[in-house]
Write a structure and sequence with these properties.
globular, IS5 family transposase, 7-stranded mixed beta sheet, alpha/beta, IS402-like_dom, 7 strands, Transposase_11
Length: 271
């Protein structure tokens, strides 16, 4: 963070203008209303503070004014179940598309392994970490590295199993006249996706596959296109809460992943 820049977990007015209409409205009870509900914007700042710093929920500093960690956790859960983060991600993709900032000429897909120290759903023995429990972050990004869709699986799942689910998970992106854009022209992937069945499936949905083949020397030339997904995954893991999976519940970790993808889109939009 550069000197003079605002703290990244402080929600700016322009970002809040986009998020606030997406949040479900909660009516306060007229009879026995109890304690006043924490302001949604402050709760979101608390969620972002945990996402950026990876601090345990129970250690969220009260002097920040973001409420208790448990309150922020419940808001993250409720808003994820209401689809807020997915809609925010889709909204920001539409704005990027309207501004001509999305490269639909190609897409790139890859995955990254993270430790899952507490286990839970969508974990498995990692083949790269002495069979310790782990999870995989699967990401597909457009030509500039902006994430289009993400998924979470166990650390022992083959990358190819998420190829078509991720392609199908790309939302219809509006922002320009005509039909929403959903498919890139071609797809680049490494040897982990090398199978003729996957190539046929990608061709079947109208996308030209460029997948490196096993047993061939490195230097296929695909690296000049695939480096963007490595940068995207590095940006995701810049959020410290995503470097290690601390959540037992997979939906909470997926909520963090989708929120982080939306923040990446927001940064690209404003910069």
């Amino acid at each position: 963070m550069r000197k003079g820049e605002p703290l990244p977990w402080i929600v700016s007015d322009s970002l809040w203008e986009r998020i606030e209409p997406l949040l479900p409205k909660v009516q306060r009870r007229t009879r026995h209303p109890g304690r006043k509900r924490l302001d949604d914007r402050k709760a979101l700042c608390g969620i972002l503070f945990v996402l950026y710093t990876a601090i345990p929920w129970e250690f969220l500093p009260q002097e920040l004014g973001f409420g208790s960690g448990m309150t922020c956790w419940r808001r993250l859960r409720d808003w994820h179940q209401a689809g807020v983060w997915n809609r925010l991600h889709q909204l920001l993709l539409a704005e990027l598309h309207a501004a001509g900032r999305l490269d639909w000429s190609k897409a790139v897909i890859d995955s990254s392994h993270v430790r899952a120290l507490k286990g839970g759903p969508k974990t498995g023995p990692s083949p790269v970490d002495r069979a310790k429990p782990g999870s995989k972050h699967h990401v597909i990004a457009e030509g500039h590295g902006i994430p289009l869709a993400l998924s979470l699986t166990g650390g022992n799942r083959n990358d190819g199993t998420q190829l078509m689910p991720l392609i199908k998970a790309i939302p219809p992106v509006r922002g320009r006249r005509g039909r929403p854009r959903k498919r890139p022209a071609c797809l680049y992937a490494d040897r982990g996706y090398d199978h003729d069945l996957y190539r046929r499936q990608v061709w079947h949905v109208g996308i030209r596959p460029h997948i490196a083949r096993r047993g061939t020397p490195h230097g296929s030339g695909l690296g000049i296109h695939r480096w963007v997904i490595e940068r995207t995954i590095a940006l995701l893991h810049w959020f410290r809460r995503l470097r290690i999976r601390w959540e037992i519940r997979d939906d909470i970790h997926e909520a963090f992943m989708t929120l982080a993808a939306a923040i990446i889109c927001w940064r690209r939009l404003v910069r």
